[in-house]
Amino acid sequence: MREATALVQVYSDENGKIECDREHRLVQLYWSTHCNGQPLRSLLLEALRHATSSQLTAWLCDMRKLHYMEMADQNWLINELFPSFSRRHRHRVAFVVNINNYELMSSIQTKSIVLHTPALARVIAMDVFLAKGEARHWLLSQTPSDNAPSF
User: Fold this and answer.
1) What confidence tier does 4 reach under pLDDT thresholds 50, 70, 90?
2) 112 — phi, psi (to 5°)?
3) Are residues 126 and 107 in contact, defined by beta-carbon separation less than 8 angstroms?
4) Per-residue pLDDT tens for 75-90?
């Protein structure tokens, strides 16, 4: 497995931080406190900006500090954020959650919606993990064909 060693912090605020590793095409988001609505979306939009400008296709979202995800935020992910991903690449999104809030995070439902929405399923592979190391391994062990254009 390739290790993500070239992480550079590109953004930080009171809600979390974003790190990028251009060599491995990885963007990592960490929430440092529970938030929802605009603060949650702002961090994701900032990550999207960096991912798009650097063609990063692997997303590690460490959501262990989030207690739950509002339905409006989940709908925003599906209807606004994910459709903004570049259609020229195959993306992987790994959500890292706590066992205590696993069901409250709506991660499984979000994964199911992406899987059953053809336009998103062609562009995004998604999984949910309880350990960051497992999520990183899944993201970085992709084969070159996993990043091929999805046309």
Assistant:
1) very low
2) -65, -40
3) no
4) 999 999 999 999 999 9
The per-residue pLDDT for range 55-70, each reduced to its tens digit, is 999 999 999 999 888 8
* 3-state SS class at 62: strand
Calpha distance 143→150 (Å, rounded):
14
Tokens describing residue 99 = 């066992």
Strand ranges of the sheet holding 124-129, from the earlier edge strand across to the other edge: 8-13, 16-21, 26-31, 58-62, 91-96, 124-129
Determine which helix (DSSP H) or strand (DSSP E) holds 61, and give its type and residue range.
Answer: strand 58-62
pLDDT of amino acid 103: 63
- For residue 63, what are its two tokens? 């959501």
* DSSP string across 21-54: ETTTTEEEEEESS---SHHHHHHHHHHHHHHHHH
pTM score: 0.87
Are the beta carbons of 91 and 52 closer than 8 angstroms? no
Residue whose structure tokens are 């999984």: 127
CA distance 99 to 89: 31
